[in-house]
Specification:
By secondary structure, this protein is an all-alpha fold. Helices cover 61% and strands 3% of the residues. It contains 7 helices and 2 strands; from the N terminus they run E-E-H-H-H-H-H-H-H.
Length: 138
């Protein structure tokens, strides 16, 4: 098992309390973060499974603090699987920021990302008539 510094992402084979590279108090750092903040930090983890899992969890939690970090991740990651996971997660949020950003991705250069965005937008449009029908019944 590898351990990582959450600031400079150097890895160690031991659970160090202080990063020998950047001097971060690693244990204190994690203690100061709540669950959502930890997941947001994990979005930058160098092992790709970790950001993918963190993105998924953030999408489930729908904490609005995750919107901006997810957008940043989609913009800057070079890993299409991470980008796709972040897009899927962002699709679960309904903030003006998240909706606007998803609209800008319909011309994303990576087909996988584009397809995911189109799926999200399509399912959102499918849901709209049913809510209107629901209102008629009220
Ligand atoms: Zn460090």
């Amino acid at each position: 098992m590898r351990f990582y510094c959450p600031r400079c992402w150097q890895d160690f084979d031991k659970d160090l309390s202080r990063c020998p590279y950047c001097g971060l108090d690693i244990h204190g750092f994690w203690k100061s973060k709540d669950y959502v903040e930890k997941l947001i930090v994990a979005l930058n983890h160098p092992e790709p499974e970790t950001p993918i899992r963190a993105a998924w969890l953030l999408g489930e939690l729908k904490d609005p603090r995750a919107v901006e970090p997810l957008i940043r991740l989609i913009k800057y990651t070079e890993d299409v699987y991470i980008a796709q996971a972040a897009v899927e997660a962002l699709g679960k949020f309904e903030t003006p920021e998240s909706l606007h950003f998803l609209d800008t991705l319909v011309h994303h250069p990576v087909k996988m990302v584009r397809d995911t965005v189109l799926q999200i937008l399509a399912s959102r449009n499918r849901h709209r008539p049913s809510t209107e029908k629901g209102k008629e019944n009220v």
